[in-house]
Structure formats: C-alpha cells, structure tokens
C-alpha cells in the first residue's frame, strides 16, 4: 500500500472527513484491521485565510509548497490539497514535489463523466466560483460549469466562512443553499459540485433537487485508488 500525503487544516473539519472516508474505504476494500497509510500536514487556517483574503497567492504558495515538501520527506507517495479554494496554488504545489499530485477537480470530473452529466452547477467559496482555476479543469474534461449570481455567491461564501468552517450547521442556511441549487437546476444544471470541502457537512443528496458530487468524497476515493494501485 502506498502512503497518502494530505495537506489539511483548511478547515480541520473537512480534513477530518478526508481521514475518515479514506480509512473507511481502505478497510472496506481490504478487510481485517487494514487502515490507510497517511501522513498529514495541517496548516494554520487563519494564516492561509488572511493571505487569501488579500489575494497574496505567492504567500499561500510558500506555505503549501513547504507543507508538500515536508510530506514528501516524511515518506508520502502522493500529495493532496484537502481544500478546493487553495487549488488556486495547485500548479505551484505540483511543481514543488517530484511525486504525483492528485487534483481535486480531476477526481471529481472523472466521477461526473462516469455518470454522464455534461452541465454542472458549482458551489464553493467566492474565489472558487468567480475564478477559473477549477472551472477550466472541469471544462477540459467536457463539463460545462454554471455558478450562482453575485448575491448568491456572497451568501454561500458567508455560510462557509461564518458557519461551516467552525462546525456550525444551521437549518436556515441549508434551506438557502438548497434554494440556490434549485435556481441553478432551473438554469439547466444536471448535477451540482460541492466545490468547498465544508459543503458536504450541510448538504446531502436526499434533500437536493439534483445529483450532488461531493469533492471531498471524490478526492478521497482517488486517494484510495492510488494507494491500492487501482
């Protein structure tokens, strides 16, 4: 079994989900007392968020590149960024190491393509929805992306940073997110990408008006496949 290197802490809530999902899937596939070989570098999210809010991407790259090289030195066979927004720095992180980098959008796009969907709604932080660093990855895999309007983007971003990253889940916030998804469904979205690793904490497919692809789950499954040479 190969060793998975996780750059986490953005937030620690979603990083805990990565750890749980990967270990559960390894045990499901291998049985007995098997668990995943994982090395985790957890960054200080406040330092990341302060630089991100000022669009100091060179500073966030330094932090994440340093984490990646430490994981490689600790024996990791691959690197994963356990966050969607910080995939803004994915090219930098990929260049900083000589081991495979498992991209969150590539893993999610693979699952969407298997399901046969061509047009997906994208929810995430404001940066993720406004900028193209994830959109272009999905587009390159034949998936058209649509996003909420500006006011709804601000609402989604507020729910993520004011509530979800702190582990706060409110029914009224869930209802607002579901209404946004319903609006995007009416605009032609065939499925929705939970493009923030915290969104899976509050949304599930049973309540949603269209199929959901949780990037945490898709990314974690890609890690398991890599670890087991699938």
Automatic annotation (TrEMBL):
Similarity annotation: Belongs to the aspartate/glutamate racemases family.
Highest taxon above the source species: Bacteria
Alphabetical keyword list: Isomerase
One Pfam family, short name: Asp_Glu_race
Protein name (record): Aspartate racemase
Entry annotated with the keyword Isomerase: yes
Gene Ontology MF term list: amino-acid racemase activity
Species, as recorded: Denitrovibrio acetiphilus (strain DSM 12809 / NBRC 114555 / N2460)
